[in-house]
Design goal:
single chain; 327 residues; alpha+beta; Beta-lactamase
Length: 327
């Protein structure tokens, strides 16, 4: 046995693998074909009225004309026919509008399944849009049917399909709730196959632009009503300090070590719907920056205050698991 390429260096696509998986699923639903199962459990609940596997005159009438190239560069009208047993590997027909409905469904990843339009539990969607393995280059990998690519600062999960005269690709970017579908009525075989995967170069432009646009629309975190009570410098263990201050009508906290300020974070009311004057939540000013301490579900992101007898001045703060006393 020998390896054509080093392990985990790149993926190798298997049409047969998808066909086998699709037909294996039929064993879980006796008396129902793969095509019938998807129609009943996916296309119908999501109202994908132009999606299916049946190749017939009605479908052909709605389709754009696909063209392919002969070896000498001449175009000809592509011919499409039923794929039979291998249909799960790429015989689904759909409109752009229907695939947009599917993309929208993939972003309903916080709702429980309801046996209606929510055909999968949100937790299952999150698991589905994840990695099975990353390549050594750090920008590609294997997913659960998806092909992950790190592009424009975010992970996108893609699936492409090609038949004679047609090429389509869908990409979902969970971090931005952005989905892209592109299709072409021509089949090409360039030396650099990446040029045929057109969503990736498109997302290199779209992801940064979309991120910048969203940041401009981002609401300014509210200033706590009792922010003046919190303002001050606080002494902690090992001569560490924190400083709480108002800057541009936002309440900030920074860690001070040997006079240098580190890790600036916002302090916002908590809980948001019924704020407790003695409790504030720290937030990273950049929503795209993930901090383990702020997002791991523990209470490290919460700042707890003790007030003086008048109730107007904070005397100590428990912050990031440590107590700091007003200086």
């Amino acid at each position: 046995m020998y390896y054509v390429l080093p392990q985990y260096a790149r993926g190798h696509y298997s049409n047969l693998g998808f066909a086998l998986l699709g037909r294996a699923l039929e064993k879980r639903t006796p008396g129902t074909t793969y095509e019938q199962y998807l129609q009943k459990n996916v296309f119908d609940p999501l109202n994908m009225t132009n999606a299916g596997f049946a190749w017939n005159p009605s479908v052909a009438k709605k389709m754009a004309v696909g063209t392919a190239l002969t070896p000498d560069g001449k175009r000809y009208k592509a011919q499409i026919s039923e794929m039979g047993w291998t249909a799960p590997m790429g015989a689904q027909f759909s409109s752009s509008r229907d695939l947009a409905k599917f993309i929208s469904f993939m972003f309903r990843n916080t709702k429980p399944a309801d046996n209606k339009e929510q055909i999968l539990d949100g937790a299952t969607i999150n698991e589905w849009l994840g990695h099975v393995m990353s390549f050594a280059d750090g920008i590609g990998g294997f997913g659960m049917g998806w092909e992950p690519n790190y592009v424009g600062g975010f992970w996108g999960y893609s699936k492409a399909g090609e038949l004679d005269g047609y090429r389509s690709q869908i990409t979902i970017v969970p971090g931005l709730k952005l989905g892209v579908f592109a299709s072409a009525t021509i089949t090409t075989f360039p030396e650099d196959a990446s040029t045929a995967v057109f969503n990736i170069p498109a997302l290199q432009i779209l992801n940064p632009a979309f991120t910048a646009a969203v940041k401009k629309l981002q609401l300014t975190p509210p200033l706590p009503t009792n922010w003046r009570s919190w303002v001050g410098s606080y002494q902690g263990p090992d001569n560490t300090e924190i400083s709480v201050f108002n800057q541009q009508n936002q309440l900030w906290v920074v860690t001070v070590i040997d006079g240098e300020k580190y890790n600036p974070l916002l302090l916002v009311p908590f809980p948001a719907n019924n704020p407790d004057p003695a409790t504030l939540q720290t937030k990273n000013p950049d929503p795209q920056v993930v901090c383990r301490w702020l997002d791991d579900g523990t209470d490290y992101e919460i700042a707890y205050a003790t007030f003086d007898p008048s109730g107007h001045q904070v005397t100590n703060v428990t912050y990031m698991g440590q107590q700091f006393n007003l200086m």
